[in-house]
């Protein structure tokens, strides 16, 4: 079995390490410690899979903002547990992909069976195909998705699906055992949200929907649980939605009432087509005069009235690349109100290093505004950005200490608070970091504190050597720090 899973383990690590900067759960040192000891770490994971000792002992659930008020639960697995999960799923990915029709665009394993299609390109391709379908006739569009899809996937039903595609018994047993332990080790349900591997399992779980729509003769597109059905007759679309709802219920799922609708032909085009963005993109590409003005106009319209988040992200990414600073005042004022877009807002600010003093002031004022409130994601992202941009501030340092010492907070902001303190420490800070490490129970925060102590020149070689030779989860970071590295800034 060791040989059979080895290529998938390497693929899992390659994807995890390559995508470390875009992760919803970023690593405080970009997985540099694991990369430094990868051959040994790889052997440990391979042995776990071969022996059947799989399944997470502990899962942290991170509330990632979807909008200013709602969140979705992202499963934070240890690197070991994440790679075990990805490896097991990747080993059956091609079997699952072979069952999918061309109408499915999400989590496709690729024509060569070796890697994923690009998620962004896949989404765009689906939208373009939708425009082509609507243009073929006076089609109407029925659109729906599933309430809390990943959370409500039934593992027992999924086990039957996995066996049906021809997965080997050892892989199936280990994967289902893993998912059952996942549910037992946290307050999460279903399958982990966040890993790419879950998108593959989600595809097999919705195969009955795909088959029904195909047999009924509808034109159809699906990206994960976002489903689009096309027909010229409104009643036919309504009947299709009712049948899909029945199939979903049989698989312990519920159709979203707020996101289920039938659109007439003109509305269907609006749902799928975005001519203005396409024109702006093309104009920027060829250097068309006025393309920048059209982009800025799109941004201003997106932030007026009810904010259009998708357009804000589209505009800020391109304005940053064009070094167009006209969105800076809005971004600096709206870090709190648009905290669910923190990654995009902060990436835009980083495009203007000459404005670092204003950025630092905005960080300070925003962190003061959100102190004592539940904005853990925004605090983490600001501390991550402040560390990366080398924003040295006594005020941010004081707030970082407050966050680090608050054990009621989720762990991510505490880890990045430790990293900020390590990079911006006084002599006294170094001594206090050692004390904080001794009192800390969470292994992820302890790992961040070890790195902070190292950067503050307050960690003893004896401690690192002791941990490096132990079976502690901190052995990998300790071995890394003993090499006296320059620790990479968080992405």
TrEMBL record:
GO molecular function, one term: RNA-directed DNA polymerase activity
Keyword Transferase: yes
UniProtKB keywords: Nucleotidyltransferase, RNA-directed DNA polymerase, Transferase
Coiled-coil annotated residue ranges, if any: none
Domain of life of the source: Bacteria
Domain Reverse transcriptase: 43-286
Protein's UniProt name: RNA-directed DNA polymerase
Source organism per UniProt: Streptomyces hyaluromycini
Lineage: Bacteria, Bacillati, Actinomycetota, Actinomycetes, Kitasatosporales
């Amino acid at each position: 079995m060791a040989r059979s899973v080895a290529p998938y383990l390497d693929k899992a690590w390659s994807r995890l390490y390559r995508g470390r900067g875009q992760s919803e759960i970023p690593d405080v040192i970009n997985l540099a410690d694991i990369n430094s000891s990868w051959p040994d770490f790889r052997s440990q994971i391979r042995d776990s899979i071969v022996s059947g000792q799989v399944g997470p002992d502990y899962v942290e659930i991170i509330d990632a903002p979807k909008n200013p008020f709602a969140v979705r639960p992202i499963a934070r697995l240890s690197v070991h547990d994440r790679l075990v999960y990805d490896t097991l799923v990747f080993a059956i990915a091609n079997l699952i992909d072979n069952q999918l029709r061309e109408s499915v665009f999400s989590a496709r394993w690729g024509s060569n069976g070796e890697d994923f299609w690009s998620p962004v390109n896949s989404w765009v391709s689906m939208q373009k195909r939708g425009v082509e379908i609507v243009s073929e006739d006076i089609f109407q569009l029925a659109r729906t998705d599933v309430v809390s899809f990943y959370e409500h996937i039934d593992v027992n039903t999924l086990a039957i699906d996995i066996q049906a595609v021809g997965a080997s018994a050892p892989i199936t047993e280990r994967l289902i055992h893993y998912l059952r332990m996942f549910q037992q080790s946290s307050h999460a349900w279903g399958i982990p949200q966040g890993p790419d591997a879950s998108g593959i399992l989600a595809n097999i779980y919705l195969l009955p929907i795909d088959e029904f729509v195909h047999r009924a003769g509808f034109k159809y597109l699906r990206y994960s649980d976002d489903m689009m059905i096309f027909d010229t007759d409104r009643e036919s679309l309504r009947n299709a939605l009712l049948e899909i709802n029945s199939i979903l219920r049989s698989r312990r799922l519920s159709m979203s009432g707020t996101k289920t609708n039938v659109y007439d032909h003109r509305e269907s085009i609006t749902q799928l087509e975005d001519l203005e963005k396409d024109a702006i993109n093309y104009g920027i590409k060829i250097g068309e005069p006025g393309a920048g003005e059209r982009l800025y106009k799109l941004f201003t319209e997106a932030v007026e009235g009810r904010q259009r988040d998708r357009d804000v992200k589209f505009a800020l990414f391109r304005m940053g690349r064009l070094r167009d600073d006209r969105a800076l005042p809005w971004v600096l004022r709206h870090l709190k109100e648009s905290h669910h877009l923190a990654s995009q807002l902060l990436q835009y600010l980083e495009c203007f290093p000459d404005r670092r003093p204003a950025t630092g002031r905005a960080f300070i004022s925003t962190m003061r505004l959100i102190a004592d409130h539940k904005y853990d994601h925004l605090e983490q992202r600001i501390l991550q950005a402040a560390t990366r941009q080398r924003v040295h501030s006594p005020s941010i340092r004081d707030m970082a200490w407050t966050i680090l010492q608050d054990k009621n907070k989720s762990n991510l902001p505490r880890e990045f608070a430790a990293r900020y303190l390590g990079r911006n420490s006084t002599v006294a800070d170094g001594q206090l970091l050692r004390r904080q490490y001794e009192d800390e129970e969470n292994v992820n925060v302890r790992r961040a504190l070890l790195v902070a102590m190292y950067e503050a020149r307050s960690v003893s070689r004896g401690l690192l050597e002791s941990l490096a030779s132990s079976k502690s989860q901190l052995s990998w970071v300790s071995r890394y720090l003993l090499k006296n590295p320059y620790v990479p800034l968080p992405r």
